[in-house]
Design brief:
With 153 residues, the protein is mostly beta strands. The protein has no helices and eleven strands. It has a four-stranded antiparallel β-sheet, with no helix packed on it. A four-stranded antiparallel β-sheet has the order 5-6-7-8, with no helix packed on it.
């Protein structure tokens, strides 16, 4: 039996449209936001996070906003449990190692590199269920390790 792409309540609808590439959308824990990895078009791509504010009916309630991270590449997008910020694994430049970044949704807050003092290459990470800690695996020349970052006291 072939299933319809329309779902039980009708056809899907578009939430946001931008020039460039969107990937891996993630709902905020409170359901008020939708975030996706964004790569700008062109020869020199730049990474940002596209954030869409959603009304209770699921429609976009404001134009999409790009949260600039100053990164060349990013991925593994995850929300903090209070929906105030996202974390992302990304690189800041050609040949640089991947780091874990915190991107606040508040206008004017700069991106924060949470692993800037760790010389190893971040491979992946996860947030704790309560959103207070990050665990990440890191590659070093002679092996690998797992680390923890406390986000809140």
């Amino acid at each position: 039996m072939r299933k319809s792409a329309e779902g039980p309540n009708g056809a899907p609808w578009r939430v946001a449209v931008v020039q460039g590439r969107l990937s891996a959308p993630v709902w905020s824990p409170d359901g008020r936001w939708l975030a996706a990895n964004y790569s700008a078009p062109g020869a020199k791509p730049r990474y940002a996070v596209l954030v869409v504010t959603l009304a209770p009916d699921g429609q976009a309630s404001a134009p999409p906003r790009l949260v600039e991270a100053g990164l060349l590449w990013g991925g593994s997008l995850a929300w903090l449990s209070d929906s105030r910020a996202v974390t992302v694994l990304g690189t800041g430049g050609e040949g640089s190692e991947a780091d874990i970044w915190l991107l606040s949704l508040r206008e004017g807050d700069p991106p924060v590199n949470l692993t800037r003092d760790d010389p190893s290459n971040m491979v992946d990470y996860s947030l704790s269920p309560d959103g207070r800690h990050i665990a990440y695996s890191a590659e070093i020349p002679r092996g690998s390790s797992i680390w923890r970052i406390d986000l809140q006291p």
